[in-house]
Specification:
The chain is an alpha/beta fold. The chain is built from 7 helices and 5 strands; from the N terminus they run βαβααβαβααβα. The radius of gyration is 16 Å and the shape is globular.
């Protein structure tokens, strides 16, 4: 079981410290509202890496919002675009990427992420996720008659996929984004030095 403030150290397939973290790419996964973009921006500052947000990259390239893409192309169309962006960003170096909450639904995406760098799962309770997302109208999957129940359903579906993909799992709900990013930066730097 993971404690509230735990940072699970990065390890490779042999259980040795993962040395890719300070020099390689870092990918943040987790539910909508987990803080991937906020923590990712701060972490990129601390580790001197370039920050990307896959949803923002999709919006920049299409010129429309995520809800508009869902409306026109459906979730399947959005997921295709998401995989294209992830494939492209896998070729970048020294980046931190905040992925969309559903990026892990694709087995191909999970494999790309896991082998392309260090994956950090920002795990947050449903209560915290609900508090952060309940007024956000830019979350197409929560535009239902019972958005909290939908959020809980998505969490149950996705939590095992995030865990499967991640090298590091962090309980992110109880700390400020800045404190969390500082803690991660320190852990990642230590892991890369001791490898």
């Amino acid at each position: 079981m993971i404690s509230t403030d735990a940072v699970v150290p990065a390890v490779d397939a042999k259980g040795e410290p993962d040395t890719r973290t300070a020099t390689g790419n870092i990918f943040l996964v987790g539910m909508m509202g987990a803080g991937k973009t906020t923590v990712g921006r701060l972490l990129s500052h601390f580790l001197e890496k370039t920050f990307y947000d896959s949803d923002r990259e999709i919006q920049k390239r299409t010129g429309v919002s995520i809800p508009t893409i869902f409306e026109i192309e459906g979730e399947a169309g959005f997921r295709r675009r998401e995989t294209e962006i992830l494939s492209e960003l896998m070729n970048a170096r020294n980046i931190i990427l905040a992925t969309g909450g559903g990026a892990v639904l694709s087995g191909a995406n999970r494999t790309m992420l896991k082998h392309g760098g260090t994956v950090i799962y920002l795990r947050t309770s449903i209560d915290d996720l609900w508090r952060r997302t309940r007024h956000d109208k830019n979350r197409p999957l929560l535009q239902t008659s019972d958005p909290r129940a939908r959020l809980a359903e998505l969490f149950v579906q996705r939590d095992p996929l995030y865990r499967e993909t991640a090298h590091i799992v962090v309980e992110s709900g109880k700390r400020s984004p800045r404190h969390l990013a500082q803690s991660l930066a320190q852990q990642l730097t230590i892991s890369s030095r001791t490898g």
